[in-house]
Amino acid sequence: MPFANKAVRERARRRIAQQVKAGEPCHLCGRPIDLTVRYPDPDAFTVDHVVPTSLGGSDAFETLRPAHNRCNRQRSNLPMGTVGRNSGVLG
Ligand SMILES: [Zn+2]
What we know:
- By secondary structure, the chain is an alpha+beta fold.
- The protein has helices at 6-21, 69-75, and strands at 45-49, 64-68.
- A two-stranded antiparallel ribbon has the order 1-2.
- The longest helix is centred in the N-terminal third of the chain and has 16 residues, at 6-21.
- The chain is globular.
- The site of zinc ion has 7 residues, from strand 2.
């Protein structure tokens, strides 16, 4: 989940964390996220780009969703709804 720079990433993390506190679950698996779990734990909170930056996605707040570290990594760079070699879904 590369961001343009650290400041952009930190601002995004704070805003998305507020949504998680308000009850928004992981957008990939639908389970709640525990904000006290620290990265790089698989259950840790991460910010996911709905459109991967490698595919032209931006850091705009509207394109960001909360996700578990594990879920984020398994999704890799694939567009939503696809399953492929790098998604982890096929092993
Ligand atoms: Zn998840």
